[in-house]
């Protein structure tokens, strides 16, 4: 019998605790985790005992009338609920929901935290060993203070540290080497030497990856597969193979385990970016956190070979559109992916037979090809991808350009592809046109349109700076080159403008292809060829057929409005003539705006009610006279306690909502 009584008491206690927790959470109108909700119920239950005891007179509960006993129990329950609400509100203020992982997630994340910390300490040791510690602490100047050997030494230390850091940091350095608007020339030149060639992964690991991604053993999918890779890099390696159909293909396989390494390194990059942005002026000025976010997104895309396959299809479409579209020059080949065999970790594509452009001098001479014509073909294809189609190869260095055996060119490695929307392409065309005309006012207008501008900017000084820039690079007797964009970026950075990553990718591609063009045809005039492409493109857009098609589209779009316009004008004039003309404006027409205002009014109303209830409770508790409920408790005092509890419940509801929004912000 005693055991049954104990079990009954335990069950009733658990039910009471859960009921208190549920009521407290419901009154706060917020969702809380199970652990903190149950803890709040336990505290409320424990608080209910002394609260009830405070209302019981010394001679026992029998001296309290039955009607009063009921209200004492009600008040004690409400106060216990209030205690549970206080626990939840305080917990939300100190540790907002989601800021502390649950027990299961904490156990799962412990190993990841240990590995990340170990890697973080390793990267910090590399940075300190190469003399970069002061710059991470904020005591360095951050941009290679000084000139000559000082800047060169710092740039070399940064390159060596990034190389030792591994794949993610090598990729970061390669991206930074294209940002001439952010880094001095010494850093650009030094980081441009970064290479990520590494030893190939063992064949058994590669074979397991292929079998897992293809859903069958390698020998069943391919008629032949070369176990020795054609090339190996930090993210993937490439093998030659032959399909069952007899077609020669190239298989790109992601290195096993690279995703976990990149994930940890990206977390470290993010932490370092936050530290640098917080502790240094130069880090905040160049937007190092935004740069890190963009780099992380691009690297995650590069790890997914399905994205690369889609990029190949898109660029191939752009290249096909270029065939015969710019003076009859053929476009540039793009290997076709076998989409049915492509996955996150495996990319199977057509194998093209040719020679890398970096070593194609003898082949060009043997085939009797014109290097200048090949260079112009490559540049026109890239410009059409940028200006017309809006999807372009963002890393066309000589190693990614192939001279095929039939004399055509081909682009390889589409892990890095840029995309421009219609508005940005149009703005970029206006920018290049304004640069070609040497019009500083037009250049200023376009830059302020495409770049994120600060709140205060001296536009007149910016126009003068751009005028000097145009006179220096595009004046009489000057031979402009792609490197003039470096000076343009310097002006942009000096006036606090932020070049969009998409535009930076365009000039990165142009600066990269300049090296490919120089190796193919020394002395090739890239600016003159770009002008010729621009003239041909404008002639194509302004030709009779194109103009007729454009006019037809615009007329079809305007026709419905033109048909309704006379009737609308007649109605407006008639209403104005008879004094019935009026303008209706709908405030808060958006449902989200109405919901926001309603929520604000709701919070204000609850706050007013809480303050009013609290004030009335204080007034009632200050009254000594009046009817008595017991010898120790008066009616006004009892009502005051109830109003005080209600006031605190309302106040806690408001505060918990504020803490929840602050924690999630």
Automatic annotation (TrEMBL):
This is Ubiquinone biosynthesis protein. Residues 193-443 form the ABC1 atypical kinase-like domain. The chain crosses the membrane at residues 6-25, 37-56, 68-91, 604-623, 638-659. Belongs to the protein kinase superfamily. ADCK protein kinase family. Keywords: Membrane, Transmembrane, Transmembrane helix, Ubiquinone. InterPro entries: ABC1_dom (IPR004147), Kinase-like_dom_sf (IPR011009), UbiB_kinase (IPR050154). CDD domains: ABC1_ADCK3-like (cd05121).
